[in-house]
Amino acid sequence: MNKQYNFVVAIDYEMAVTNFREARAYKLAYELAMEIFEISKSYPKEERYSLTDQIRRSSRSVCANIGEAYRKKAYPAHFVSKSTDADSENTETGVWIDFSFSCKYISAEIHKKLRAKNSEIGNLINHMINHPDLY
Length: 135
Fold this sequence. Notes:
Blueprint lengths: L23 H17 L10 H21 L4 H27 L5 H23 L5
């Protein structure tokens, strides 16, 4: 049986953001990066230079790329390019979250919470990419 699903994403867009730190995508990405930092403190020592380092770097990079994108707002193609970098880093973060769960470093509840936030950030960044004129 072929089912069709129609998903509607309700996003609270903050138009006319003058400082990237005011953007909802940045706020959520920063919040997620800090949550990941705290959670990853409990990862095993043998993960220090692999999973722990990777998940921290990619989650922080989302924020850095959003900041860089906003500094390039005068050049829409550059804004989209840096926003695309943020989207890629956000996707990478999602993969590391999945590995964290599969390796049993986080619970199913935490995994679900982190993935939901990661997905929302992705939706917000994709809106930035598709509508650079609004940012």
